[in-house]
Amino acid sequence: MKTKYIAAAGLAAMLVLSTTKAVPASSHREALAILNEPCADNTDTYAWLSDGSHDKLDLIMDFYPLHEPGQGNHGLRACNGYRYDFHIATGASLEDRVVYRIEFTNKLTPAPAPTAADSLGGGNELLWQLTGGTETMKVTRFTVRPQIQTPFGKTQPSSDEVVLGDGLPVLPNNHGPQTDRLIYGLGPFKGYDSGDPASRTIGLFDQAFVDKFIQNLSNGGRIIAGQFDDPYQLDEKGIFDLVNLNASDLGGIPGARGSEAPSRDVFTGFNVFSIALEVPISDVFPNGVPHNGVLKPDSTDSLIRIWASISRQQTQTVDPNNIITGVKGGGEWVQVGRNALPLFDAGLVGTQRQTLYLHSSPMKDVTNFGADILFPVLVRDIEALGIYKALGLPDSTVAKLKGPRIDIINVINLGRPIPVQDGFTGDVLTLDAATDSKFPNGRRLGGGTAPNRNQVNVNSVLISLIAAGDPGAGLAKGVEVNDKDYLDRFPFLAIAHQGLLQGHGGSNVPTVRDPARP
User: Fold this and answer.
1) What is the pLDDT of residues 294-346, one digit of tens each?
2) Rounded to the nearest 10 degrees, how much is the dihedral formed by the CA atoms of 349, 354, 359, 364?
3) C-alpha closest to that of 106 among 10, 28, 172
4) What is the pLDDT of residues 394-425, one digit of tens each?
């Protein structure tokens, strides 16, 4: 996408913010305020329209990251006491028009102290899957009626609330072969006494089993939630070592690390908790998508603006009687996490105002983070590392990259006539519902030239845009494929890594010879 410049009036509106500072978001534990609250750590948000007809909107929210598949005697459970919301606005405004809320409920019946007469699965167990515990979810749609001016004054905004599904089962964890047979009933179980190890070595958790947990909703949509492979890729080790990129990411400059320290996807082998939701576009555009199939670059009437938030009650009090969470919520519901554009936090804003980002709405992003977009810190860091000199960039070019960077704002807003002011420009995914989705026009999962490749390498596009002023510069392309194939249909996510035989871990050996036994 070629960059265009926004009107001078918009630039002036942004320049007045140049005294503000920076703040990161909530992707993959990158925000200080979220380190101790993984249930509120939403890592990635995806949103795109079905090709051609544009009659379905697919939404994915990932959270609770970096879960080792075999970790914990209770695995990766659905988080209770939180609200997971997809916010959807239309046109140039960021005001909510439709909100989809997902809430999880885990139930576990208290059991008496164990006795010698208890049978397997009697309730008092060490492992969740033997307790008889259940995980379900509720899906609610809020359709917002905005404030309007009447001859008698402005009306109060209100919303219609419709429960689209309740008590819907959550996809269970991919623990391993014995759980597949004993708990999920995916095949006959043979004990150790059989002499046959198949029940302990051959997993039966497959796509057909996962598909059973795709739940239909009353609006014609569908949803699935649970443990999946983390679909994101990044050489995060290099990024977090002060942007220590590989030579292949930097045009082959000799001063960069090479084959002795190749790029690695740090998310390989990890799972994440995902919500995949598909809804009819008629929920958003009841009268149909404006000029569907026709691109009108000077209009905003067919735009959808999407972001995801996570909220909980403000007060959390220790409650030993709550078996599931150990706390009791009270007070108002407050936002504790959000996410939309990939790398908005890590690529544009810094550390000092993490809590402000997590607890604020995109409606205030121009005031809160406008300077971070206009004057990207990453450019300053790259200059200090000598990368621009190694690439032979003249000082005049580097000076332009330092800002003000209207081109970044233009890409975020798809080059549309969107005011650069609070309530209109912010960290959201913007889609043109009249055209097929391709980043930055939405963000699609999969759809690339290989089953494990995304349609667009969003890392490369955004880092190239910020650091070089050119989305096609090809920076940070070292990791471009996932460790598992994506689906070419709903829910698009790859099956979770199995707890027993996949993920991480190794065989350790003594560093000195064991002393001889007497």
Assistant:
1) 999 999 999 999 999 999 999 999 999 999 999 999 999 999 999 999 988 77
2) -30
3) 172
4) 999 999 999 999 999 999 999 999 999 999 99
List helix spans (H) across 323-451.
344-348, 354-359, 365-374, 377-384, 387-391, 395-402, 406-412
- For residue 217, CA distances in Å to 141, 323, 401 come to 11, 30, 47
Label residues 371-384 b or e (16+ Cβ within 10 Å = b): bbbbbbbbbeebbe
CA within 13 Å, CB half, 435: 18
Residue 516 in tokens: 């001889």
Contacts of 489 (CB under 8 A, 6+ apart): none
Q: Which two tokens stand for residue 69?
A: 């598949």
Task: For residue 503, give both structure tokens.
Answer: 């993920």
Question: Bridge-partner residues for 278, per DSSP?
Answer: 58, 222
* Longest Cα separation, the chain: 98
The pLDDT tens digits of the residues spanning 139-198 come to 999 999 877 666 766 666 678 999 999 999 999 999 999 999 999 999 999 999 999 999
Q: Position 338: which residue type?
A: R
Instruction: From residue 78, give the alpha-carbon distance in Å to each of 169, 218, 274.
Output: 11, 22, 10
pLDDT in tens, 86-101: 999 999 999 999 999 9
Helices then strands (H, E): number in the chain? Answer: 13, 14
Q: Is the link from the previous residue into 491 a cis peptide, with omega within 30 of 0?
A: yes
Size (the chain), residues: 518
Write down the H helix ranges in 212-337: 236-240
User: What span, in angstroms and rounded, lies between the C-alpha atoms of 498 and 79?
Assistant: 20
The mean pLDDT of the chain is 90
Nearest to 377 by CA among 288, 299, 467: 467
Cβ neighbours, 10 Å, residue 289 = 22
Residue for token digits 């007497």? 518
Tens digit of pLDDT for each residue in 453-474?
999 999 999 999 999 999 999 8
Per-domain residue ranges of the chain: 26-172+213-234+269-364+424-444
Distance CA 36, CA 490 (A): 32
The secondary structure element, H or E, covering residue 210 is: helix 207-211
Close Cβ partners of 62 (under 8 Å, ≥ 6 residues apart): 42, 43, 44, 45, 230, 231, 232, 272, 273, 274
Q: What is the pTM of this model?
A: 0.92
Residue 68 φ then ψ, to 5° = -70, 125
Measured N-to-C along each axis, helices 8-15 and 365-374 cross at an angle, to the nearest 10 degrees, of 100
* Of residues 368, 502, 509, the one with CA closest to residue 427: 368
SS (H, E, C) 159-196: EEEEEEEEEEECECCCCCHHHHHHCCCCCCCCCHHHCC
pLDDT beyond 90 at 250: no
**Do the Cβ atoms of 499 and 70 come closer than 8 Å?**
yes
